[in-house]
Amino acid sequence: MFQLIMNASLLIVSISTIIFIYRVIKGPTTPDRVVALDAIGINLVAITAILSVVLNTSAFLEVILLIGILAFIGTIAFSKYLEKGVIIDHDNDNN
Amino acid sequence: MSILHWVVLAPFLYAIIIPILFTYMKRVHTGWFILPLPFLLFIYFCSKIPTTSQLQTDVFTLTWIPSIGIDFSLMLDGLGMLFSLLITGIGTLVILYSIFYLDKAKEKLNQFYVYLLLFMGAMLGIVLSDNLIVLYMFWEITSISSFLLIGFWNNRRNSRNGAIKSMVITVFGGLSLLAGIILLYLMTGTFQISEIIASVQQNSIMTDPLFILAMICVLLGAFTKSAQFPFHIWLPDAMEAPTPVSAYLHSATMVKAGIYLVARLSPVFAVSGYWLWLVSIVGIVTLIYGSFFAIKQTDLKGILAYSTISQLGMIMSLLGIGAAGVHYESETTYYIATAAAVFHLLNHATFKGSLFMVVGIIDHETGTRDIRRLSGLMQVMPITFTISIIGAFSMAGLPPFNGFLSKEMFFASMLNILEFNLFNMQTWGLLLPIIAWIGSIFTFVYSMILVFKPFAGAFKPEKLATKPHEAPIGMLISPIILVSLVIVIGLFPDLVANTILSPAISSIYGGGSYDLHIYHWHGFQPELFMTIGVILAGILLYKTREKWTTIYRVFPTILNRLYDILRFKTEGSFNSLTNRYMVGSLRTYLIYIFSFFVFILLLTMILKDGFTSDLSNLAPIGAYEIGLSFVLIIATISILFAKSRLTSIILLGAVGYTVSLFYVVFRAPDLALTQLVIETVSVALFLLCFYHLPKNARKKESIPFKLSNAIVSILVGLVVMLIAISSYSNKLFGSIAEFYVENTYKKAAGENMVNVILVDFRGFDTLFEIAVLAIASIGIFTMIKLRMGGKKSENK
């Protein structure tokens, strides 16, 4: 029963990921894609968590944290890029 | 080190101090400093004549590279003695002549004498070496120093071309000689000539499959060096060298190195019929070709060059025929050919040296060497005329000069060979004396041209650039000494016969002593009538030469044209060939690399029948793997068809993240962590690159489809897949992972096995991966910084 629930939730998250991927590929604008990617990142967190439950291990908890951080940083970087055209500002550019 | 070693090395050592002498002793012609050296060497060799004429052979060995059997060992026997006397004796005369020929203010004398001494030492090394590798080393030094000497006036185009031509041809022969030496080593197990000859006499190597190949390689070396047909073409072009060089290198010494080699290795190869036929046929063809084309020349040195070719051919053919003597140990009839070869070798060096010097004098005093502009010099240059008439008559084979004696012996041995009943000599052998006779007629004709065209007739000073007069006495000394040798040897041939010639013959045959007697008059033999016939036909041809020399228009200079085609046309075609495949496009090179990769791997797999698939040790496939693979495949394929680059980058990121999910599924947490971080960083880097693309290249278009690319990439994927399947199906032994599982905690105090392997069990790899990262970061830093620095300096 537990196994079935886990598999079912994994399936659901996967399907949602595939739909996000459709948005990444199809997405008419770049922000669409970026948001979809961010959501994929969060979905990956979920998938990793469920997988570590299925595999019965605690070795992947760092991965979960890392994906969270990376998804955040990545999305911020993308957003900044889309907004300003640069990710890391030069000192001179502020003036 | 024995004295002989010092003798061979002396010219090299002396060459070192020549530039010093040249720089600090400006007032004296540098040649005067050089002159004593070859003279001393000559005296040394003369003092050794009693030893060699007793057939005592001294071998002096100096270990050089003993581990591979290369020793600097020298041997002084009859043959080496003959050549050493020629090299040092004529070397002395040539240096004396060059002192007066080359101007001390205008010419780069230091270079000239350095090259000449290099050559002299190398030539002595060739004829005295007992080790084939050492011989080869000196052989190549003669090629190089000859190249330098031919191109001595390197501001002239013809000199440079002649130098390159001789270099290309003789080095080609030299390399083939090296191959021959190595083959001989494979057959006999030694590089020492004396040991090779001894081992050949014990057990014949004729049946060895490498024998013929070794013979051909050695002969190629000898034929190219000695300007035999069809490799003779470099010699006429080498006449651009200063005349002392032509006299020394291209008549007396270097071109005889091939003769020396053939004579020296005769005991090894002479048992074979191929050797007899190859050497004598090439020699006789060279003889007639050289003498025939010598008549066509209008340049005096051109005549002498072709004459040298022809005379070398004669000596070569005599050596070939002399090989017949090996088959009849008791008969003395056949060794007369070798005697003739050795004798003519000596004679040719004397009269050809003097003739070259005469031509140099004419050139020096009149400013031209063209026989069409020279005539009647007899009145102004009587001594030169006397020298040249003696030299030329000796070359034509007239009594009482030494050329007559060797020409008679030549005819005699050509007739003797008819009685030789091996190797089809009875059927085809008749051609040899006939060709030899015709060649001698041509020899007579060009000798007459050489002496009578410039000297006889009416004196026409208006055709000449300078006012001709007799040469200074210093220039005349050397040719006078040479022609007196011509006369002395001609009148008293026994002076050299048993002291120098017969030890040389015995070292060619390796037998006991040969009692050699050379007579001017040996009755009404057929060879005498042949000589009379040569003189009569020669005079007839010389008188009527205006009528028949038109036939030379029929004979184009096909060999030189072939060389030009080989050298220049092939250069162009190879150039265009290279341009055709080295197109400069990376895509094409990648196609080459990948196609070759596919080709070689598929071929190996097919030839070795390497494809195996063993399904027994496969793990069961889970649903997650299928799902992830599906995502991975979709993402990968989408990259190929993405319209914008941004999409490609994002899809690439998706691939990377999926791979990290695979790591999760396959239970590799550390890999998953690293993969995630790295993927993020690299996607960021890609975005950075994307932003910096030039504006006009930012066209948003999909990758254009190319069929070749598709085929190659599909094949590469396929091959890699096949190899992966095959290698997975061929697990030969188990994994060593058990060790790590057991000892990670016990021995290394860690629970994370991946990390323990990285820093403990196999920490060295990690160290250098850190180094790689350091290099990469420093590299990136310098690339950015240095470019900016460059910009700054541009702004200034």
Descriptive overview:
The complex is a heterodimer of chains A (95) and B (796). Chain A has 95 residues and is mostly helical. Chain A is 78% helix and 0% strand. Chain A starts with a helix and ends in an 11-residue tail after the last helix. With 796 residues, chain B is an all-alpha fold. A two-stranded antiparallel sheet of chain B has the order 1-2. The longest helix of chain B has 33 residues. The two termini of chain B are 66 Å apart. The chains are: A mainly alpha (95), B mainly alpha (796). Chains A and B meet through helix 1, helix 2 and helix 3 of A and helix 26, helix 27 and helix 28 of B.
What features would you highlight for this structure?
heterodimer; A: 95 residues; mainly alpha; flat; B: 796 residues; two-stranded antiparallel ribbon
What is the CA-CA span between the terminal residues of chain B? 66 Å
Number of H/I helices of chain A: 3
Q: How large is the share of residues in beta strands of chain B?
A: under 5%
The averaged pLDDT of chain A comes out at 83
Count of DSSP E strands of chain A?
0
User: Number of helical segments of chain B?
Assistant: 32
Categorize the overall geometry of chain A.
flat
Oligomer: heterodimer
Biggest interface, residues from each chain: A-B, 35 and 30 residues
The gist of it:
The complex is a heterodimer of chains A (95) and B (796). Chain A has helices at residues 2-26, 30-54, 61-84.
List the helices and strands and how they pair.
The complex is a heterodimer of chains A (95) and B (796).
Chain A: H1 2-26, H2 30-54, H3 61-84
Helix pairs in contact in A: 1-2, 2-3
Chain B: H1 3-24, H2 30-34, H3 36-53, E1 58-65, E2 70-76, H4 78-101, H5 109-128, H6 132-150, H7 157-188, H8 193-202, H9 211-225, H10 234-237, H11 243-252, H12 257-269, H13 273-294, H14 300-322, H15 335-366, H16 382-396, H17 402-416, H18 425-428, H19 431-455, H20 473-491, H21 494-509, H22 526-543, H23 545-548, H24 558-581, H25 586-607, H26 623-641, H27 645-665, H28 669-691, H29 707-729, H30 737-746, H31 753-761, H32 763-795
Antiparallel strand pairs in B: 1-2
Helix pairs in contact in B: 1-5, 3-4, 3-21, 4-5, 4-11, 4-15, 4-20, 4-21, 5-6, 6-7, 7-9, 8-12, 9-12, 9-13, 11-15, 12-14, 13-14, 13-19, 14-15, 14-19, 15-16, 15-17, 15-20, 15-21, 16-19, 16-20, 17-20, 17-22, 19-22, 25-29, 26-27, 27-28, 31-32
